[in-house]
Amino acid sequence: MSERFPSSEKSSLNPVTHPNVITTEMLQSPEAMRQEIEALRQQVQQLQAEAGDRNCQLEKLSHQKANIDQRFQEQTAALRESNDTLIEEVVERQQVEEALRAAKDQLQAILEAVPGIVSWISADLRYLGVNQHLAKTFGMPPEAFLGQDIGFLDTSQEFISFVRDFFASPQPEGRCEIDATVGGRGRSFLIVAQKYNQGKAAFTVGIDITERNQAEEGLRQAEAKYRNIFENIVEGIFQSTVDGRYLSANPALANIYGYESAEEMMLHITSIKQQLYVKTGRREEFVRIMKVHDVVVGFESEVYRKDGTRIWISENARAVRDDSGSLLYYEGTVQDISARKHAEIALQHANEELEQRVLRRTAALTDTNRQLLAEIHERHRMEEALRDSEAELRALFAAMTDVITVFDSEGRYLNMVATNSALLYRPEQERVGRTVYQVLPPYQANLFMRTIHRALNTKQPVRLEYNLPVGDWHQNDKSGGNAAADDFENTAWYAAIISPMPDNRVIWVARDITERRRTDWALQAEQQKSERLLLNILPRSIAEELKQNPSSIAYRFEEATILFADIVNFTGLSASMPPTALVDLLNEIFSTFDQLASQYGIEKIKTLGDAYMVVGGLPDPDPDHPEAVAAMALEMRQAIAQFQRADGHPFKLRIGIDMGPVVAGVIGIRKFSYDLWGNAVNVASRMESQGIAGKIQVTAAVYERLKNQYRFEQRGEIKVKGRGLMTTYWLMA
Q1: Closest by alpha carbon to 411, among 511, 510, 498, 472?
Q2: Those residues with Cβ within 8 angstroms of residue 161's Cβ, 6 or more apart along the chain or in another chain
Q3: What is the three-state SS of 154-177?
Q4: Do 132 and 153 belong to one domain?
Q5: Domain assignment of residue 606, given as a range
Q6: What is the pTM of this model?
Q7: Cys-Cys link to 499, which of 53, 378, 461, 681 (CB 3.0-4.6 A)?
């Protein structure tokens, strides 16, 4: 203790305050000793507590170290896994880039292999790129198109208009047929376009359909020619079933059998075997030959006409089978050979008489007569052949309607053959030796000269359609001889082929096509009329799709707004009005509603008696369709007030509106109509039928959509058929 404290401080030590110092007084006093021992015990306990605290701290530090080690290991593992993942992503990205390069190569190969022209166009109507086919078509490298305006080649104004309208429309894709001039020749193309890059660009594919259109026109002409032959040929033509019923027949066959029309004949003759053949076994013989040979030629039979008289016919027919060889029907021709049969009978009698006379003559006369008969027969044969040849020649010239002219390079008429076609323009004027400028009006004269030089320069035939005035042309005509496309009263139209000839001449073969042009013009007018009628029945987009694909069309729309309106108490009024007045009144009311629908861009679906149905948001999507339908409903309520009943009171409407997903489309194959299906349609109908006169009842969905734009009043809960209790609202303004 003397080492811990200086000597000067020993006198100040107190056993009580300093228990570590044991003095003589403490040894002599048990109480002091006890206190000292107690103090030492407390000190030991304090030291033990401190030791325990240190152990706890050490244990915590140990746990923290273990946690740090574990986190280090976990982070090391995560880092290793992240590194592996990064490596895999790098490898995968390289593979994707390689696949992308391969896909680009494949796409380029496909685009180059497409048998059509492909181009990429920006929204400002400039080329972003073209394929090799398009570049080769115009004899230019692909890079020459880059950045150029799409009209820089001046080949088709229709293509420029189509692309411009396509970018202006919201549709992502489009198609149309256009005409273009390629290499100085008119061609027709089917253009298909698709937008990309959020509508900022599009690619187009053009397929040359010139030959297809020409083939279709040729087929149409062939069908018309066949139909004309079928209707006007003197031979009867038929198709019949195996059991003896006619499937089709031409007027000539009906005339042979004594009927007014083919329809009357097919309706009357239900069993060829029983009603037509005098000997019913002939039909069985006809069928037997068909089974063996599939064809019959010159099958002669006696048949009944409608009035019961008998005639002789000759049939040529064949069996028509499907790909599997099953017999479908018979088809063939019928000739009335009654006159020939009667002549054969008369000839037979004459021959019998002649034979009797010949037998009575001497052998010498027999030889002479035989020689004479042979000479007469040969002469008859030659005369018949001559008559046939003359008839064919007369028929050929009678059927020709071409005007054939030979011109020199200066447009001078060298020769002219009008065949069976009359010259409609200045027919009295002599043309040979004169030039086209001396004969034709200025417009046609210049056209003729350009065409003649073109044929001579290209050494190729040139096709041309042109017109000429009927009668004479007057010098004061400001058109110079040209006429309007629909002027068929004063103008004749011609189609010509101008072919080069030796000695710098051309042969001009022209055919009068005025009637064909007149028919085509009428057909075009009828087609436009039909188009307008179709657009009054169906939406334009649906009508266009239906023309391309005449089958059922249906699309689902995730949101549309449906309105039903009904004229209150109109059924009772209809009983007291004449039908004509009733229809006129409904037409006037619904026409007013139609104008409102057109004004707000809403699609009218249908009318059912005095009920009216429209929908907003389709077939062309419109994000504001609920607002448009609500605005129309308010105007309908005002518009109906201008129509008054017989008692002087205005009509009122019940209107119901709901919105939600629907399916819209056209179904069936006749009497097309555009209609809707879906729960929202049914609920909108219930909103109308369970509404109040003069009120517009809407569902909660409509209220939530429009509550910040229109004023509503809550009606409360009503029980709706098929839906239970629903909270509805009145649209006020």
Answers
A1: 498
A2: none
A3: CCCHHHHHHHHHHHHCCCCEEEEE
A4: yes
A5: 538-731
A6: 0.34
A7: 461
